[in-house]
Amino acid sequence: MGKIRSVLAEKEIGKGFYSDTARLEINEAIHLHVNENRFVWTKETFLKMVEMFKEAEVAYYKLGCPEKTSDMHLLAGADLPKQLSHNRIAVEEQKDGKCHIHVKDLRIHIGMGDLYVFCETFENAWLSMCMDHSEVVDIKDLKYHPVVDEYTEWLKEYKDTSENWRYLKRMITKIKSAVGKFSERNLGFPEGYPVSVDPKIQRKYLYALYKDITENDIQSPIVCYRLKDDSLQVVNSHRFAIEKFSGVNSINVVITQAESNWKE
Prior knowledge:
The chain is α+β, with helices and mostly antiparallel strands. It folds into 2 domains: about 20-130, no CATH class; about 130-255, Conserved hypothetical protein from pyrococcus furiosus pfu- 392566-001, ParB domain (Alpha-Beta Complex), CATH 3.90.1530. It is built from 6 helices and 11 strands. The chain has helices at about 45-60, 110-135, 145-160, 165-180, 200-215, 235-245; strands at about 20-25, 30-35, 35-40, 90-95, 100-105, 105-110, 135-140, 140-145, 220-225, 230-235, 250-255. The strands form 2 sheets. The protein has a 6-stranded antiparallel sheet with strand order 1-2-3-6-5-4. A hairpin with a 2-residue loop joins strand 5 and strand 6. It starts with about 20 loop residues before the first strand and ends in a 7-residue tail after the last strand.
């Protein structure tokens, strides 16, 4: 059981489509449905879970079947075998108008209205994180991807070159329609956006992001990962290149642990 430091965001949602139900299914794998949540298990994991629940039942009866206890009691545990390869986070729209939120082997089934509340809650949580955990650091103390230096050169070319404003405006509109509102892209390209894209597209994205930041005076913090050697690694190369190009000595950052599949 964790110890809550603070509630970053919270909203209430109503009863779901499958509330108060539980079932087990077998298809391409074994599925455990509990309310709107579905867990995907292999045969080996399922049998381990069955064994664990049997042990937990015995331990629970020995405690006298309490509703709750003042101290935490471990009822049972299990070392699970290799899981299915669902190492992704995704949001899917279903043909019936509902949504599936996938987090590894967990799927949550919700409606469009609740998805809106879900997203709004996460957005508010991120804003709270930025307010509570941002700090100013010296640019010289940050590690970054080598591509940042290339992006900085591109920005020099962009500023030194006389661009046709009408053409640039059309380009920005086109790029914005493809990747969304840039002022909200604090973590770089949207999920699933190709990394190895044509350098021309990289340039256009960088230029449009630069224009959006400078014209709208965007000052939201940049995310940095704290690495094992306690150094800080910038996550967003495009955004950091713009800050570096602007000539500032320090920037506002939010320092977090690296994502679970991050490789230094």
